[in-house]
Amino acid sequence: MNKLFNSTGHYYLLILVAFLFACKGEAIPPDETEEGNVFILNEGAFQASNASVDRFNPVTATLSSSVFSTQNQRELGDVLQSLYIDQDQERGYFVVNNSQKIEVVNMEDMTSLATISGFTSPRYFLKVGENKAYVSDLFGGSVSIVDMENNSVSGNIPLAGWTEEMIVVGGRVFVANVSSEYIYVINPQTDKLEDSVRVGIGSSSLGLDYKNRLWVLCGGDYFTDTPGTLVSVNPDNLTVIESFPFESGNYPSRMIVNQAGTQLYWLNNGVFRMSVNGAELPASPILRAAAGSYYYGIGIDPGSSELYVADAVDFSQQGAVLRFEENLTPIDTIRVGVAPNGFVFN
Amino acid sequence: MNLRILGILTAILISGNFLPGQTDSLVLEAVEISAPRVEFWSTGLKTSQPDSMSLREFAMQGLGELMKYNSGVFIKDYGPGRIASPSFRGTGAGHTAVLWHGFNLQNSMHGTADFSLVSAGLHDYIRIQPGGTSAVFGSGAMGGVIHLGKRTEFQEKVLISAGAEAGSFGRVGGKANIQIGSANYSGSANFIHQNSANTFRYLSRDLLQTYTGGAFQQTGMSVDQAFRITPRQKIHAHLWYLDRGSQLPGKAFQADQGIRAALVWERTGNRNYSEFRSGYFRDRILFEDTLSSISSLSTSQTFTQEAETRIILSDRHILQIGGNLSYQEATSDGYRGDTFHEIRGAAFGAWKYHLNSRWESALSIRQGLRVNQRAPVIPAWGIIRKGKNLSFRTHVSRNFRFPTFNDLYWSPGGNPELRPESGWSAESGFNWSEKGSYGLISSDITFFHSRIKDWILWVPGTNFWYSENILKVHSKGVEAEFEYRKYLGRWNLSANLAGQWTRSTRQNRTGALDGGLNRQLIYVPVYTSQGNIRIYREGFSVTYRHSFTGRRYTATDNSAYLPAYFLGKIHVSKTFYLSDYQFDAYASADNLWNTSYQIVAGQPMPLRAFSLGFHVYWQKPD
C-alpha cells in the first residue's frame, strides 16, 4: 500500500492516468467522417456570386458552412445548380450555372482540383462512360461532352432547347428538355442523338424505380397555361407506360425517387409523395409551405430515409433546411446559405 | 401697402432657403410669391443646392455623381453607363420624387427615375430636399424630393459655349450651349454627348481586371424658351430629350430613350399668383439579351395638367389651392404586350401663416385619386422659428405612394389589388450660423423618424414572384452638416463636412423563418459622410471631395454585407480670358486613392480615373 504513494508509484499513477485521458480525447472530428455527410447546395442570389455549399452531419446535427470557400480561399461562383459525385475517383463536380464553369474537387476535403470552362449556361453533369461525362445546358442548345481525365470540353451534341437532368439506363443516356415535349436518348458510345419519347412539355426531372421504369416529371408551361404531367416510360422500348396529367394551374418540379425505388417525391407548392405503383396523383401534399416560405429543393437520405426540404425563404437571406423523419415527424431546422436548391448524400 | 407686402414676401422667400452651401448667385426677383413650390412650401424642411461651380464640375456626369459628394443621399449605382437610383433616409428608389419644372419624372412603370440618365449639365439648378412631402408633391415623395430645372432670366444676353472632355477608359464627350435673352425673352439650347468604351480597371481577388462588354453612349438635349407676355405674365416651354445605349455584362444590351416636355404659364398679381402647367413625358426602354434570347420593350406616356393659385389674404396669411389631372399609359412585353392606362387626379391646398419675421408655419393638405382607388388624405405641417443666429424647425407629414404599373400588371406576378404605400414622418432641426472676421460658419442638425406601412415587395410565390403590400419599415436618423467660408483677400476658402446616421429597419416578418425582423434594409448604409474643400479666386479653383460610405447589408437578415469604403476626388480648373472669350480648362481625378469597392454586389466599380476638358464661352459685350 505504501508503495503506491512513494515517488516511483506516483510516476506510475501519473502515467496510468495520462493514458486514460489520452484514450478519451481521441474522438474523430465530424469533418473527417467518410460516410454520412449531407451536402447542401446553395444557389446564391443571381449575379451576386454568393453560391456556396454547406456540409451537414446528420448524426451530430452540425453544419460546416461554405466548405468550398473555406478550403480554397475563393468564392465558388454565381448560381450553383448541381453537384455530381464520381464515387470511383472520390471527385465532386460542382456545376456553377451563371459562372459558366464546373469546379472539380476532391470530395474528402473539398480541395479544388480543376475548373472546367467552355459552357454557356451549364445545369447538370453526368458520368456516362469511362472518363466521359455529359453536361446539360440552359441556353447553349447542346449537351457538352467532357473529358474527365484532362477536365476539358471535348465536343458537344446539338440538342435544341433547355436540357436539364440526365440519367443512364441500360447503357443509354436519357435527357430531359424543359423547352420541348420530348425526352431525348443519346448513345454514349457514339455521342449521337438516337431517339426521343413524347412525354409532355417541360420535362425536368428523371428517376428510376425498382421495376426499372423511368419516371419523368414534366413541369408544364406557365406561358401557354399547360399544366405538368408525371409520366412513366419503358426505357428499353421507349414507350410511355402511364401518364398522370396534373390539373390546370399546376407546374410541379424537382422530382426525386427514394433509395428503394418505391416512392416518388416532388415539389408543387408543397411536398408531394406518391407510390410508384399508385393509380392516381395524390390530392394533397405531405408538407405544405408556410406563408413566407418557399420550398426550393428536396432530398432523401438513402440510409436513414430522413426527408430534407430546402426553404429559400426570400432568396436574399440565409435559407433553411427542414429535416423530417420518414413518418414526417419534424427533427430540426438548420439555417444554411442563400437559396438552397438540393441535397447530395455521400 | 404694396411695399410692406413685398418686404414680407421677400422674407418668406429667404426663410424657405436658409441652409448654407447655397448657390452663389441666387437671384432675387422683384416679386417672390412666384417662388417655386419646393421653396415656398418647405417651411420646416431643409433644402440644399449645389453651387454653380459644382454643377459645372459634374456637367457631363449623371445626377448621381453630383449627389454622392453633395448630399447624404445614398446612390445605388451599378457602374458607369448603368442605372443609378437614390435612397433618401433609408427609403427605396421609388420613394424619391424627381421634379422637373414641377413634374414628377418617376417612371409610371417602375416608379423610379434613373439618375444616370439625368445629365447635371442640362439644368441650371438642382435642389435636394429630404423629408416626406407628399402633401405638396403627391405620390412618391416619401423619402425626399429633387427639384431640377432651368431658370428664366429676362436680361439682354447672348452667350454661346462649347466644350469637350476626354477621360480614362475610352471616354470622350462634348457639350454645346447657346443662350439668348432680352427684356421679354429668354431662350437656350443645350447639347451633351458622351461616348465611352468603358473598359475600366477594377480589382477582383487582388487581380487587376479590365471590364469589357460595357460600352455606352449617351446624348442629352434641351431647348428652353421663355416669354414675358405682359409685365405680369410669362410663359415658358421646355423640351428635354435623352438617349442612351449601353452594352451590359453577359452580352446584353439596353437602350433608354425619353422625351420630356413642359409648358408653364404664370401670372403674378399684386395679391396673387397663378400658374397653369402642362407636361408630356414619353419613355422607351429596350432590353435585349442574346444569351437567353430575351427581347423586352417597354414604352410609357404620361400627360399631366396642373393648376395652382396663391392668394395673399392679409399680411400674415397666404392661401393656396390647386389641382392636378394626369393620364398615364404604358405598354410592355412584361405585361405580355398589353397596354394599361389610368387617370390620376389630386386636389391640394395650403395655408401659410407668417406671424412675424421670426415665426412662420405652413399647413398643406392633399387628396389624391387613382382610377378607382383613393389615396389617404395627406396633411403636412411645418414650423420655423428664426433667430439672429439660431433657427429651429420642425415638420410632420403623412406620405404615400401609388403602386406602379409594373407592381400592378407585370405578368406573371403583378397584383391589381395593391393598396398605396403610406406612412408618417417627422423631423426637427437646428441651424446655427454666424459671420465674423473669421469668416462664415454654419452648422445644421436634423433628427428624423419615419414609419411606412404597406411597403410593396416582390416575394417568391408558388410558381413565380408576385407583388404584395407586405412590409412595415421604421426609418430614423440624424444628419449633421458644418460649413465654413472665408474670404482671404484674393482667395476664397469654402469647406463643408456632413455626416448621416440612418437606421432603417423592417418591423415585421414575412414568414415564420424570416430572419429580417429589426434588421437594416439591404443597401442602406448606417453611416455615411461627405467632405468638400475648395480654394478659389477669380479664374482658378481647386476642389477636393471625400466621401465615406459605410457597410451595406446585401441579405435581408443581414447575414452578408459589402464592406465600407472611402472615395476621393480632386478637380482643378483654370480660366483664361481673351477679349470676349472665356476659356476654362480643367482636370480631375476620380477615385483618387484607387479604392477597390462595390456599391452593388457583384458589380465592379472603376479604380482611379482621370479626365481632362475645356470649355469656351463667348458672351456678347453689353
pLDDT averaged residue by residue of chain A = 90
Give the SSE string of chain A: HEEEHEEEEEEEEEEEEEEEEEEEEEEEE
β-sheet strand percentage of chain A: over 45%
The geometry of chain B reads as: globular
Class per helix and strand makeup of chain B: mainly beta
Q: Name the poorly predicted regions of chain A.
A: 1-6, 17-34
Helix content of chain A: under 10%
Radius of gyration of chain A: 23 Å
Cα-based radius of gyration of chain B, to the nearest Å: 24 Å
Total strand count of chain A, please? 27
Number of helices of chain A: 2
What's the rounded overall pLDDT mean of chain B? 90
* Strand order of the biggest β-sheet of chain A: 3-2-1-27
Largest sheet of chain B: 22 strands, antiparallel, barrel
Per DSSP E runs of 2 or more residues, the count of β-strands of chain B stands at 33
Helix content of chain B: under 10%
Topology summary:
The complex is a heterodimer of chains A (346) and B (622).
Chain A: H1 7-24, E1 38-42, E2 52-57, E3 62-64, H2 67-72, E4 80-86, E5 91-96, E6 101-106, E7 112-117, E8 122-129, E9 132-137, E10 142-147, E11 152-158, E12 163-169, E13 172-177, E14 182-187, E15 192-198, E16 203-208, E17 214-218, E18 229-234, E19 239-245, E20 253-257, E21 263-267, E22 271-275, E23 295-300, E24 307-311, E25 318-324, E26 330-338, E27 340-345
Antiparallel strand pairs in A: 1-2, 1-27, 2-3, 4-5, 5-6, 6-7, 8-9, 9-10, 10-11, 12-13, 13-14, 14-15, 16-17, 17-18, 18-19, 20-21, 21-22, 23-24, 24-25, 25-26
Chain B: H1 2-15, H2 37-40, H3 52-57, H4 63-70, E1 74-77, E2 84-87, E3 96-100, E4 103-104, E5 125-130, H5 134-137, E6 144-149, E7 157-167, E8 171-181, E9 185-196, E10 201-204, E11 207-210, E12 216-228, E13 233-248, E14 252-268, E15 272-289, E16 294-312, E17 317-332, E18 339-354, E19 359-370, E20 373-374, E21 378-386, E22 390-401, H6 405-409, E23 421-436, E24 439-460, E25 465-488, E26 491-506, E27 527-537, E28 540-549, E29 552-553, E30 561-562, E31 565-578, E32 581-590, E33 609-619
Parallel strand pairs in B: 3-6
Antiparallel strand pairs in B: 1-2, 3-4, 5-6, 7-8, 7-33, 8-9, 9-12, 10-11, 12-13, 13-14, 14-15, 15-16, 16-17, 17-18, 18-19, 19-20, 19-21, 21-22, 22-23, 23-24, 24-25, 25-26, 26-27, 27-28, 28-31, 29-30, 31-32, 32-33
